[in-house]
Write a structure and sequence with these properties.
heterodimer, A: mainly alpha, MetI-like fold, B: mainly alpha, 9 helices, flat
Chain lengths: 219, 219
């Protein structure tokens, strides 16, 4: 068997069509992971016992492979009668896995805020909830924008894991084509090249955003 | 099957998980040091091929690389066992990340160190071996520990190319006993038992490294 260039080119448009799903899943998972990670971090800061509990929970999320978590969530939900579309389960899985990493990003982002900010909020009589929403969150967002961008690239690169639960993203559609024609090399090669290009373009955009933020920091 | 038997059954796959991890390290560590140092030393256009090579291994999703190499290499006349391909792809991917830790640690050093070394008549490689690397190596350790955990976790992927690691064993067992909650929670537990100590140790080392750095700043 030889590498069939004509066949490889034929698969390009089909796999490119799935790029939309890949990007959509990555964006949705990034939002989900940020919300969940922020919740973990706020919980971790609400009391001494909670801080130990949440640190353990976050370490557990970070110490298990995303593939094992995907299998767990995908097979356990229907066992309890919860039936969700694969796409939604996939977003849930990636959100959960990356929430453990983003919690650490939020921790660093909050630690960077000067202690006087919290004290001033308390002195003004703001409640804990108002302090989080109006004092901490806005300042934290600027601190975490750059690492958040890098994790978005990581999440994008984790989307092909969802091919194992039949989410129709780029690797999944490449494997579908391969299963029909019994030729694996060409579609997989094409999907690898497209992924490489996509990851490269998006990480360049993130780096550019980082530079711009650093510039506004300095001013 | 009791929960203990399921967990024991999953650990039968530990031999492959451990083997892929160790073989992966054999690729990752030399790759990280050689290319990290090359990227640090090379200036101008000479750095481009080094960067391209690193980015190839770092920017592509590891699961796509694994599939692409596993199915494409035979077409170019290279037939490797699944184990060899897995160790190479996972190791080179982690090595790509590791090379950035090496480069960052070397570039964080004061330029005066290199200049002083050259001024007292050391060659560039002597400066690297006796001045730069000994100072930079401790700063790399925390990142290396994180990458080591990533490598262990990414070995779960080899279950997709027919190697009987822990994840593959879990899938086999789940076909015998219909209890996805028990089987997949045991799988998560198995990875947790292996990775959690490394996570805790990594954090401990990171604390010591940053503390040491602060003390030397005071001097």
């Amino acid at each position: 068997m030889q590498f069939d260039t004509a066949y490889a080119l034929e698969t390009v448009p089909i796999i490119l069509q799935a790029a939309g799903t890949t990007i959509g899943v990555a964006v949705a998972s990034c939002f989900g992971a940020a919300l969940l990670g922020f919740a973990w971090e706020i919980l971790r800061r609400s009391g001494r016992i909670m801080s130990y509990v949440m640190r353990f929970v976050i370490d557990c999320i970070r110490s298990t492979p995303v593939l094992a978590q995907i299998y767990f969530i995908y097979f356990v939900l229907p066992y309890y009668g919860i039936r969700l579309p694969a796409l939604l389960v996939g977003i849930l899985c990636l959100s959960f896995y990356y929430s453990g990493y983003l919690a650490e990003v939020f921790r660093a982002g909050i630690d960077m805020i000067h202690h006087g900010q919290m004290e001033a909020a308390k002195a003004l009589g703001l409640s804990r909830r108002h302090t989080i929403a109006f004092i901490i969150a806005p300042q934290m967002l600027r601190n975490i924008a750059a690492p958040l961008g890098n994790y978005f690239v990581s999440i994008l690169k984790a989307t092909p894991y969802l091919a194992v639960i039949a989410v129709p993203e780029m690797l999944g559609s490449a494997l579908d084509i391969a299963a029909e024609t019994f030729r694996y090399a060409e579609p997989l090669f094409v999907s690898a090249v497209i992924f490489l290009g996509l990851a490269f373009v998006i990480s360049q955009l993130v780096a550019q955003m980082e530079r711009r933020l650093m510039a506004s920091h300095r001013r | 099957m009791t929960y203990g038997q399921i967990l024991w059954g999953i650990f039968e796959g530990f031999r492959v998980t451990g083997l892929v991890t160790v073989l992966g390290l054999a690729y990752a560590i030399p790759f990280a040091f050689i290319f990290g140092i090359l990227q640090h030393i090379a200036t101008g256009w000479k750095g481009a091929p080094v960067t391209i090579f690193i980015e190839f291994w770092r920017s592509s999703p590891v699961i796509v690389l694994l599939f692409a190499f596993y199915y494409t290499l035979p077409l170019f006349g290279v037939t490797l066992s699944a184990l060899s391909v897995a160790a190479m792809v996972l190791g080179m991917n982690i090595g790509g990340y590791g090379s950035q830790a090496v480069r960052a640690a070397l570039q964080a050093l004061d330029r005066g160190q290199t200049e002083a070394g050259l001024a007292i008549g050391l060659t560039r490689s002597q400066v690297l071996a006796y001045v730069e690397l000994p100072q930079a190596i401790m700063a790399m350790v925390p990142t290396f520990m994180n990458q080591f955990i990533q490598l262990i976790k990414s070995t779960a992927l080899v279950s997709l190319i027919t190697l009987t690691d822990m994840t593959y064993r879990a899938k086999e067992i789940s076909q015998i006993v219909f209890d996805p909650v028990a089987v997949y929670s045991a799988l998560l537990l198995a990875y947790l038992i292996i990775c959690y100590p490394v996570t805790v140790m990594g954090r401990h080392i990171e604390k010591r490294v940053t503390k040491g750095r602060r003390a030397s700043d005071a001097i």
